[in-house]
TrEMBL record:
Signal sequence segment: 1-20
Keywords: Carbohydrate metabolism, Glycosidase, Hydrolase, Polysaccharide degradation, Signal, Xylan degradation
Record flagged with keyword Hydrolase: yes
Family per record: Belongs to the glycosyl hydrolase 43 family.
Keyword Signal set for record: yes
Protein name, per record: Family 43 glycosylhydrolase
Highest taxon listed in the record's lineage: Bacteria
């Protein structure tokens, strides 16, 4: 009998809902988290890393075929709502390219717009990534992909910011970081893409995330100068800049995960940073897992450096 109770005691932690610890999603690999508050819940839209294999992506590289969405009312217990968009159901995507990279999702006029970068079947306008949109009535879908990617946008890592006056902006990266206004329909650009100011000229900058706090616009981005990405930020008085570099908000990984990709979220008067690391795959940094940490700001608006909370 003692054996029976011992077994129950050992199994009990496994039966508990996921707890707030890093990484906070452990039923699959996740990366590039964009977190949003819709209603009274937090929704996280990450990329979904899977191990590559014969006939599935390129061994040693990122391998991503679909997206899940997760939600929580308390940042502790998370629900996986399952697959919302999958590569071979998007009309313009190159089949089996396993390149469904970092997404974003915003709510506008009662519709949820899910933005994702991937490789197109039609390469007449260039071989690189394009950015598509899928639209839903609920944050968990079903999402209906548009027939074609957004015209005039070439690159990865879409991020949408809606300003207080209702104007929406799309940001993305292609070596440098670009931004443009979006039309009211959220599906087309309303202005020509532009660079955003005096950002670093050396090293890759990608994964832009823009937010506003107390009249300051923050452009935050991963930047790699050495081996791995550190998170940096710049500020401006307007969403399309010009932005001035302010510093580093999270240092490079000491254990060598090449990428870091993040979003900022204010939930119940506390700011949080969502980002990723390869906690569940220490030997292969293209199978990543998402983390949360709280963020604070100094009186002058600067972001205090975030120290990762480890498991
Ligand atoms: O997840 C694939 C790519 O790695 C993302 O698009 C980048 O931001 C980096 O995290």
């Amino acid at each position: 009998n003692l054996k029976y109770w011992l077994l129950i005691a050992l199994a009990f932690p496994l039966l508990q809902p996921a707890r707030a610890q890093n990484p906070f999603i452990t039923n699959q690999f996740t990366a590039d988290p964009t977190a949003r508050v819709f209603g009274d819940r937090v929704y996280v839209y990450p990329s979904h890393d899977i191990p590559c294999g014969p006939g599935r992506g390129k061994v040693g590289w990122f391998c991503m075929e679909d997206y899940h969405v997760f939600s929580s009312a308390n940042l502790t217990d998370w629900t996986d709502h399952g697959v919302i968009v999958t590569q071979n159901k998007v009309p313009w995507v190159k089949p089996d390219s396993y390149s469904m990279w970092a997404p974003d999702c915003v709510l506008r006029n009662g519709k949820y717009y899910f933005y994702f970068p991937t490789t197109p079947r039609d390469t007449t306008q260039g071989k690189g990534f394009r950015i598509g949109v899928a639209v839903a009535d609920k944050p968990t879908g079903p999402f209906v992909p548009q027939a074609a990617p957004i015209a005039g946008v070439h690159g990865i890592d879409p991020n949408v910011f809606i300003d207080k006056d209702g104007q929406a902006y799309l940001f993305w990266s292609q070596g440098n970081i670009y931004g443009a206004k979006l039309k009211e329909n959220m599906l087309e650009l309303a202005s020509a893409p532009k660079t955003l100011g005096e950002l670093p000229t050396k090293g890759l900058k990608e994964g832009p995330y823009v937010f506003e706090r107390q009249g300051i616009y923050y452009l935050t981005y991963p930047h790699v100068e050495n081996k791995t990405e550190r998170l940096e930020y710049a500020t401006s008085t307007s969403p399309l800049g010009p932005f001035t570099v302010r510093g580093v908000l999270m240092d490079e990984s000491p254990t060598g995960c090449w990428t870091n990709h993040h979003s900022f979220l204010q939930f119940r008067n506390q700011w949080y940073l969502f980002y990723h690391h390869n906690d569940l795959s220490p030997r292969f940094d293209k199978n990543r897992s998402i983390r949360i940490d709280s963020v604070s700001f100094a009186a002058d608006g600067s972001i205090r450096k975030v120290q990762p909370t480890l498991r």
